[in-house]
Amino acid sequence: MKRILMATAALTSLAGATFADGHAVKVGVILGYTGPIESLTPQMADSAELAFKEISDSGLLLDGKVIESVRADSTCVDAGAATAAAERLITSEGVAAIMGADCSGVTTAIANNVAIPNGVVMVSPSATSPALSTIEDNGLFFRTSPSDARQGDVLANIINDKGISSVAVTYTNNDYGKGLSDAFIAAYEGLGGSVSVNAPHEDGKGDYSAEVGALAAAGGEILVVLGYADQGGVGIIRTAVDTGAFETFALGDGMFADSLIEAIGDDLNGTIGSVPWSEGDGADAFMAATKEAGVNGDSSFTRESYDAAALIALSMQAGGNADRATIAANLLSVANAPGEKILPGELGKALQILKDGGEVDYVGATNVELIGPGEAAGTYREYIVKDGAYETVTFR
Amino acid sequence: MTDTLNALVLFANFVFVPGLAYGSQLALGALGVTLIYAVLRFSNFAHGDLMAFGAMGTILFTWVLQGAGITAGPLPTALLALPVGILGAVILSLIFDRTVYRFYRAQRAPPVVFVIASVGVMFMINGIVRLVIGVGDIRFADGGRFIIRAREFREMTGLAEGLALRSTQLITVVVALVVMVALFYFLNRSRMGKAMRAYSDNEDLALLSGINPDRVVLYTWIIAAALATIAGTLYGLDKSFKPFTYFQLLLPIFAAAIVGGIGNPFGAIAGGYLIAFSEVTVTYLYRKFFTYLIPGWEPEGLLQLLSTEYKFAVSFVILVVVLLIRPTGLFRGKTI
Questions:
Q1: Any B CB within 8 A of A262 CB
Q2: Cβ separation of A235 and B289 shorter than 8 Å?
Q3: Across all residues in chain B, what is the average pLDDT?
């Protein structure tokens, strides 16, 4: 037994030595490979690693360094497991920065317990809780997705512009749903609308008649559902349609899915909503790059993941060093103007400009512009469901 | 007068009809649990997943029927497929009885050993269902979806409130009634039913009077599996089929069985309706209801006793109160 242990120890130190040859820079990719969003995370990780590969293949990063991605499982819901995984990345793998995490709850846990105390930069592609805007991050936490405070504002404006003055709200009972509903209600009441009731619903139940009964009794012209399309949100809408409680719905980004239209059918017509969206040259360039690499770039948050990874690498180059402090110091400057605009697939060009002492303004797949405490401003697509399909109204 | 009617229709639409359908599903589930408890003397934690397994069998055969172009007209095809689902659940129950429970029965193991063994069986069925049909949401109801829609009801009666009645809700209540009557007839009139009750009352005395214990166990599993499949299929028809929700159903089902008096079939039915109605009525907002009922009174608040997120707490509070005050349950079952 002792011999096996010693052999293992020797092997691990050997393995450590090969990686620590100064040629490779390790970056953690911590996402929920198991758990509620396990269907999205493989594509997100692939997109981030696509950016790393592009950087490494160019051979221009800090005189020929390559980026080695180290994956770890955030589980999306288990803060303890996520913290342990991040601890491993930072202390034993010695990563320079972390791309992640994904869900708001575990992201907050990792940031507070591990990343910020150790001075490691985190760039999350998908944590959208407004609470993350105000954590004490010492300039170490960034995200390429917009805060739900912004989405709440956008959704409130969409509803208000339709001339609807009173709504009932239901949200999925977690950090995401609570944050989004608080933001929405604050914005909507600020615009002069009234919210008759704000009721949470639990995911994974079969029966939502009690929730819908309460919502219907409170009244309101439409029902605002801030949940998940394949979880409680669809159950709420189905029950509301069946009992005739509500006829029109307004939906948050978690409800945007083709499966919702399939499940509800014609009764969903007239439903409005908002979802983070990207269009333009950056999004097209990203699609071309992913297609070539055989990555599914059409999935949710893949663009944000690519951008998060690219920002980490570019800030190393801008500071001329791959240590943790350099990344933190340079991330905002590569993300924002002034400088040459950089699209997906042009990371080699960006590295060359930075090497020559120039400046870049990383645009990426999602028109990255980091505002306030280092988060994306974000573009939202306002949609309406017409004849069983999503139809774009405008971009906000 | 119209206002009183409006109040009643409102209450029927959001409280009575959903509560009645949900209560019937719980009652059928609780009957299975209570039967196993009465005859085999342990709490079968695998019952929720047995419901999922039976419903899965029904769904798979429903697809076969639909593929062959056979439907039940205005009724859901799943009703035709139900016997096949029941057969599957019975076979699975008997396999687990032979391989797991019989061993402990021969050893005369204490009930807690059976309970833990049933948790193991629960995880196995859990895994089988997920492997075969997946974890996603499946809708398999076809035929006419509504008997009356809320909008049609409003236009027909001229009332401000609508009443929606889905065909699955009516089917649930009717099937549940038929099954309950059949079960009581079987338990009270047939020779085997009487043998089961005798075995449940006093095992040794039953053996002395020549009752074959193996046959009693066999019949108990067959009936419990049939009840589980029917309950699971009705629940899936009315809402949707998702393996995880069946696992969660276990809690209200046990609450219903214990509140009614575990081991007592009549108690299981009463408990099912009691739990279902208390979940819905305690969390309902009564403002609109009373505004209709008492003209000229505009309540300030929403008149809601408890917020809907405490829905599940309601069953537990009832459970705790019953266990404290009347440990045998409302209809005098066995003490746990």
A1: no
A2: no
A3: 87
Give the CA radius of gyration of chain B.
21
Q: How many CB atoms lie within 10 A of CB B9?
A: 21
B129-155 burial, b for 16+ CB within 10 Å, e for fewer?
beeebeeebeebbbbeeeeebbeebbe
| Residue B49: per-residue pLDDT | 93
The yes-or-no verdict on residue A92 having pLDDT over 70 is yes
Say whether domain A2-147+280-376 belongs to CATH 3.40.50.2300. Answer: yes
> Is residue B336 within 8 Å of residue B326, measured between CB atoms?
no
Per-residue confidence at A49, pLDDT binned at 50, 70, 90? very high
How confident is the model over B231-245, as pLDDT tens digits? 999 999 888 888 888
> Among the listed ranges A65-69, A348-352, B115-119, B137-141, which one has the minimum average pLDDT value?
B137-141
CA dihedral angle for residue B223, residue B224, residue B226, residue B232, rounded to 10 degrees: 160
Helix (H) or strand (E) holding A110: helix A104-110
Q: Give first-to-last CA distance, chain A, whole Å.
A: 63
- H helix or E strand, kind and range, residue B279: helix B265-283
Tokens of A164: 């609807």
In angstroms, rounded to a whole number, what is the distance separating the alpha carbons of residues A199 and A208?
12
Residues of A in contact with B275 (CB under 8 A): none
Would you tell me which residues 191-220 of chain A have a C-beta closer than 8 angstroms to some C-beta of chain B?
A: 197, 199-202, 204-207, 209-214, 216-219
Cα(B9)–Cα(A238) distance, integer angstroms: 20
Please indicate whether, in this complex, the C-beta atoms of B308 and A200 are within 8 angstroms of each other. yes
| Topology of the domain comprising A149-276+379-395 | Rossmann fold (3.40.50)
CA distance A21 to chain B (A): 45
In this complex, do B280 and A212 lie within 8 Å of one another by their Cβ atoms? no
The per-residue b/e assignment along A74-92, b for 16 or more CB within 10 angstroms, e otherwise, is: bbbbbbebbbebbbbbbee
Beta-sheet pairing, A194-201 with A166-172: parallel
- C-alpha distances in angstroms, B248 versus A135, A200, B34, B57, B68? 35, 18, 18, 20, 34
Say if the Cβ atoms of B139 and A202 lie within 8 Å: no
Distance, CA of B119 to CA of B113 (rounded, Å): 10
Q: Position B177: which residue type?
A: L
pLDDT of residue B47: 94
Contact B242 A206 (CB under 8 A): yes
Q: What is the mean pLDDT of chain A?
A: 86
pLDDT (0 to 100) of residue A169: 92
How far is C-alpha A297 from the chain's CA centre? 14
**Reported confidence tier of residue B180, pLDDT bands at 50, 70, 90:** very high
Chain B nearest-CA distance from A145, in A, is 28
- Choose the closest CB to B283 out of A210, A219, A242: A210
Residues in chain B: 336
Confidence of residue B118 (pLDDT cuts 50, 70, 90): very high
ipTM: 0.77
Average pLDDT over residues B249-272: 89
Domain annotation for chain B: domains and CATH numbers: 2-246 (1.10.3470)
- Count A/B contacts: CB-CB distance under 8 Å: 94
Are the CB atoms for A116 and A141 separated by under 8 Å?
Answer: yes
Parse chain A into domains and list their residue ranges.
2-147+280-376, 149-276+379-395
Both tokens of B269, joined, read 């039915």
Task: Supply the pLDDT for residue A17.
Answer: 40
Q: What is the pLDDT of residue A255?
A: 83
pLDDT over 90 percentage in chain B: 39
